[in-house]
Write a structure and sequence with these properties.
By secondary structure, the protein is α+β, with helices and mostly antiparallel strands. It has 4 helices and 4 strands, in the order H-H-E-E-E-E-H-H. A 4-stranded antiparallel beta sheet has the order 1-2-3-4, with no helix packed on it. The chain is elongated and about 145 Å long.
């Protein structure tokens, strides 16, 4: 083993001397010239302006694509949102005018809950009340006897039982004392 180590050392010493000729001198590379600062800043500004312009173009196109048909912003004049009232995170009441008729919509987390067509506007109802007050009825000469009730006690009891059964659905809880089906 010592013979191999000595042979390798001799080979390295004689081989390195023979290989070290004139063409193996080290010369460090020449440093490149520094970059042009004006060119770098100009490219940075131009690329920034191009990207901002591209973003503005995408925003403009998205708004234009989402605009309702008809161009007036109210669904072509037939459908107009009058107002919305959020009741909680998922429920809301919306008033919509459709061809001059007002519609109340209620929505919840599952979607459209109910749709009610409102008959008159508030101003029309006030005018009707004003006209009714303007017409003066003559006072009766003698007080009339009270009319007997139109419903019997059984009718009222059946009606209350139906209301309690309907109200006993999901989300409505009645006191046990108010329920007739429990002792």
């Amino acid at each position: 083993m010592t013979r191999t180590v000595l042979a390798l050392a001799a080979l390295l010493v004689f081989g390195a001397h023979g290989l070290a000729g004139e063409g193996f001198d080290y010369a460090p590379p020449v440093a490149p010239p520094p970059p042009d600062l004006g060119g770098l800043v100009t490219r940075l500004l131009l690329l920034t302006l191009v990207l901002v312009g591209l973003c503005a173009g995408v925003v403009w196109w998205a708004r234009r694509a989402n605009r309702p048909a008809g161009g007036t912003g109210d669904g072509g004049g037939r459908l107009k949102l009058e107002g919305s009232l959020p009741l909680d995170r998922t429920c809301a009441v919306h008033l919509i005018a459709v061809d001059g008729q007002t519609v109340a919509l209620t929505t919840d987390g599952t979607g459209l809950r109910s749709l009610v067509v409102l008959s008159d506007t508030f101003e029309t109802a006030l005018e009707d009340v004003g006209r009714a007050e303007a017409v003066v009825e003559p006072e009766p000469a003698a007080p009339k006897e009270p009319e007997p009730p139109k419903w019997s006690a059984d009718d009222v009891s059946q009606l209350l039982q139906r209301i309690i059964r309907r109200a006993d659905g999901p989300g409505v809880h009645l006191e046990p004392a108010l329920r007739h089906d429990q002792p």
